[in-house]
Structures are given as C-alpha cells and as structure tokens.
Design brief:
Number of strands: 23
Shape: elongated
Radius of gyration: 50 Å
Helix content: 25-40%
Number of helices: 8
CATH topology of the domain at 174-280: Elongation Factor Tu (Ef-tu), domain 3
Strand content: 35-45%
CATH architecture of the domain at 174-280: Beta Barrel
Distance between the termini: 55 Å
Largest sheet: 8 strands, mixed
Structural class: alpha+beta
Length: 476
Amino acid sequence: MSLFDLLEKIVAVEGEVVKLKIPEERINLLSLKILKEEAERREKKLKLKPSGPKGKRLINALEEGIEPEPIVIKGRLKVPRLRLDSTSLRRVGISALLLFGILLIGGGGSYWLLNFFPRAEVVLSLKPIPMVKELSLSADVDAEEIDAQENTIPGTKASVEVEGEKSTPATGSTTVGEKAKGTVTFDNCTDEIKTFTANSLLKVEGTNLTYKVDSDVTDVPKKTGSLCGTKTGSIIATEIGEQYNKGEGAEFDFLSGLNDPYYNVYIDTDQAVAGGSSEEVTVVSAADQDKLLKELKEELLEEGKSQLGQEAGLDQVVIQKAVKQQVVEETFPQEVGEEAEEAGLTLKMKFTIITYSQEDLNDYIAQVLGERVPENYDLFPGEMEIETLNPKLSKNTLEFSAKVTAQVIPKLDLEGIKADLAGRNLSGAQDYLSSLSNITSYEVRLYPNLPESLRRIPRNTERIRIELQTETEEEL
C-alpha cells in the first residue's frame, strides 16, 4: 500500500478517528509525518498500528518527535536502443509516454511536498514601549456584561461558613482558698444592753489582719456589778489565708467608734477562728482568650479563602484582602478567671466575597487601554501584569483599582508578512525580514528538516505561523 493509498483512506473516513495499518514496504518517517499532518488538517485523530518491526520503530520515532531525515533518491536511467521499424516506434512511443507520466506524477508530488507540505514558524522580536496605568473599576453582581463607560464588569457573590475548635494552655494564675471563720466572745462593760451589728470591722491587736462580724450579735447583757455582760458571736476574715487562723487569747479591736475600753472582743477557752487557707492555681486569662480568637480566626480565614476559591472556579479571581468576615457563633467553655489547665474556643465564621472573571478584566483593560495606545502601535497581549489595589466590598459590588503594567508594540500586518514570505527560499526570507524596520531580530524554523537546497517557505500561508515576542530590558 502506497502513501497516496493511505492518504485516500484518511480522506474517505467519515468519523473523527482514522485507524491505519502501516506496511513494512514503501514507507518511512516522512510518510508518517505527512499522514499525521493530513489528519490534523482534517481535524481527525490518527491511530497507527504497525504490521512489523520497521513500522513499530517508525511510529515510536514519530511519537518522540524525531524529525525525518532528508530523502535522497539515487539511481540511473537506461536509454533503450531505438530501431526504426514500426513495431519499435510503437514501443518507443509507449515507453516515452509512460516515462512522461512517471515524471509528471513524480514532479507534481515533489512540487506539492516542497511547496505545500513544509511548515514554517517565524519568531519576530520587537522593541516594546512600557505603559503603566491605574484604572478604577468595580465588579457588580447586577452587571451582565462589561461596560467600559461605567467602569464595571460582571461580578459573582459567594459565601461559605467554616467552623473550627482550638485550645491553648492557660497562662493566668490566682490565689484561691477559704476565709477563716469562728466563734468569739463579745464583752459589754456598759450599763446598757448592746447590739454589735453585722459587718462591723475588727482588727487583731498589733496586726493588719481584719475581720467582720458575720451576723448581728444582739442583746449583749449590760454590766452587773463589776462583771461585764458577755455573749458569743461569729466573725469571718476579710481575706483568705492561713494567717487569719487564730486561737485562744487573741484579742480584737473595733475599727469604728466602738473601739473603747467598754467593749471587748476576744477568743475564749474552747473557741477558735479557723479554716483559713490559700494556694496558687492556674486559671484562664483574658489574654488566653484573645490569643485563641485571633489564631482561630486566621486559620478559619485561610480555610474560607480556599473554599471560596474552589467554589469560584479556575477563571474567577478572588481578592483575598476583600473577603468579608462575620462571626456566627463564638463559645468559650471556660470563663476568664476559671481554674483550668487549658483554655478552649469553638468558632463558626461566615466569609463572603464578590469574584470576577479574569477574562472579563483583561477585556475591560484592553478596551480602556486600547484608546490610549499611540497611533501605529498595538497593545501586546502576551505580557501584562495586573495588581489589584484598595479593594472595598459592599453588598453587591467590589470596588478596586487595577494597576496595569503593559507593553505596546509597533503595528504589523501579519497576513501581509505571510504573503510576502510565501514561496521564498531561506536567503530570500532572511533578506525580506531584515528589511522590516520595526523588527529588532527574527528566527525562522522550517519543518521537516530538508536539505538546504530544498528548504523553502511554504506557498500555502496557512502553513506559516508568526509568533511575536518582546525583548527584555537586558536585551535592549
């Protein structure tokens, strides 16, 4: 089966997939490349199956992108001896006709291969002019299309709720304990019945330890002869601690107007003020809760941003600085000052953002900057940096500034360049490209890798691809 038979099969197949079995004879890497190019041109998927080891090697080489070696045809033509009889003339005529047909077909095929099968890639380098502009715009949930006059692009609102828990060692400390309490004796050395009211303050003589009367001590008898009237009552220390524990013989002075020699308070036999104690314990501090809230908010914010990005899709832009945060639920299991080894927090937050399409932003920038590009220049689409500044989120809009760093390049008629290059040999192509005033450098790549004498730009302009690139500042 010849190359043309295989090409006819590609043309004849109506489906999107073409399956070809590669013969071992009359086939090479260039033939496979021609088949692949023809299938791609007709938007069909080519599946090659080898019929032997040679076919398998060629298919592997094609898949690895190996360029075919130049085809070299060697051979001699033998000229037949001519006899002038009628039979010989007829034979010579038939032979000449066959030879002419072979040359015609071979020449036509060679012409097609040399002028229409090759593919050319031309890379043109240009010197750009930098352009830096800051544009103010908004992504609007109610907008359906780009409006360069109103500086709006379509926006999409998205919200997620994220919940998390966190704990941290408690760092607060406090002293806890019990207040000393007990029974004491009250003396009334006056001629009148006396009542000592609750909360009257007492102090142990010679110290700063204070107590208060726990409850009213009423109807303390008056003095009888030389004996003072007495009655027992309870007192309680004003602070916690063992130092407030007192035993028999301790005497107290009133800190009010009752502090005179006619009224005495003391601990008598079988009486005591006891039970006072104190110890240092770890408690939850306000700083612990503040730290937890700050750290957990940051963690949930990162999770919220990630979920918003997943919901938005690949083409949607999420300006993380503009994410709105709202606390939905906040629970601290321990109160400030509560004795605990750890402080905990359960937090639920809602995050809201308005996203926009990167393509919409690029189109908006192209429309706005396109009006500001100098005459005879075009905005270069391949090299643009966009920095979002000062985002401000409201109910249905996201306002922000876009700082755009772009480049403009000299305007080129690419189709005209293709037409002028078509059919030229390498030398002619180089002379032509060197004559273009706006080009700083160029590079021409031809496929397949034919001998130098046969290298030529395809006559079919659809087989010519032009790529533009800008020089970096270092290159300039």
